[in-house]
Amino acid sequence: MEIACFIEAADRHCQQQGVKLTALRRQVLELVLSYPGVVKAYQVLADLQKQRGIAAPPTVYRALDFLVAAGLLHKVDALNGYIVCHHVGCSHEGLILVCGDCGRVEELDATPVLDVLRQQAGAAGFAISQQNLMLTGRCKECAV
Amino acid sequence: MEIACFIEAADRHCQQQGVKLTALRRQVLELVLSYPGVVKAYQVLADLQKQRGIAAPPTVYRALDFLVAAGLLHKVDALNGYIVCHHVGCSHEGLILVCGDCGRVEELDATPVLDVLRQQAGAAGFAISQQNLMLTGRCKECAV
DNA sequence: AACGAGCTTGTTATAAAGTAACATTTGAGA
DNA sequence: TCTCAAATGTTACTTTATAACAAGCTCGTT
Q1: Residue of A nearest to B135 (CA)
Q2: pLDDT exceeds 70 at position A56
Q3: Mean per-residue pLDDT for A30-39?
Q4: Residue B97 is inside which H or E element, if any?
Q5: For A2-84, which CATH class?
Q6: A124/B132 CB distance under 8 A
Q7: Strand D nearby residues, CB < 7 A
Q8: What's the topology of domain A94-137?
Q9: Where in chain A are all domains bearing CATH 3.30.1490.190?
Q10: Selected residue with higher pLDDT from B36 and A43
Q11: Quick one: pLDDT at residue A100?
Q12: Which of residues B87 and A113 earns the better pLDDT score?
């Protein structure tokens, strides 16, 4: 099962960073993992409520925020949702493509391109962030 | 005054596209233009209410949606806001950098980089959109 | 002018997304 | 065991966004 494997990697990743993947956070991570693409916070909340009877928005948002900060999830602003980061241990930099229609996600290795962009941005007084770099588009299935 | 000039350009742009820059839409565009950076829908709504007494959310959202569709504004998902597009008539492709802290915005000419990215994305079954390409980061002032 | 089709705007109500503030629990170290 | 800090629970609320239907406007046709 892929999920278990990912959770294990996540666990190690958190230990390395000196942060704690608590039971709740793990549970939320598993819920997000159980979806093929983008998930919304309130969807996770509903799932969590099914599993433990009751849960309030802050519970989910805090866990999601933690997981994003830890680099285990990405926030997809364009869709108000979250996706799993499939390059947790990787050294190269990812650029995430999100289908604005269906929420499908693809992560490119964009290290070379980003090097160029960083330089351009630097000249304009900007530092492009290390995380959560994302562009929107349309996937093959949703193409007109 | 720069605003008047921009509005004129916007007018021409809309005529070319066969869409109408109505009084309301123009008014909303002017309000967005009056801000240096990112503006939020409800901020525009408040301004609009000051100017015309009453206005409801759909009024503003519809105008903003129109302006985005027409290419006159960009939506900044990361901040739930909108900015003016400073390259309305331009042929080259812009890539927008948004400071996640202060909302400052910079538009790069990223045509060459985007050519490369399009190819990579195409190989992965994705078509990167023509509009609203945006990355987040930190501007000089907000840098740690 | 009168009409109607289609776009634009007004209006009401409500849904969806996110957070502030404080109470309570838990767990690791003194 | 005690204590502090981090994590979670809880309540209430704010902010953001949209659905659904009514009314108005514009423009071409008769």
Answers
A1: A133
A2: yes
A3: 94
A4: strand B94-99
A5: mainly alpha
A6: no
A7: A 19-20, 22-25, 52, 54-59, 62-63, 66; B 40-42, 56-58, 61, 80
A8: Dna Ligase; domain 1 (3.30.1490)
A9: 94-137
A10: A43
A11: 82
A12: A113
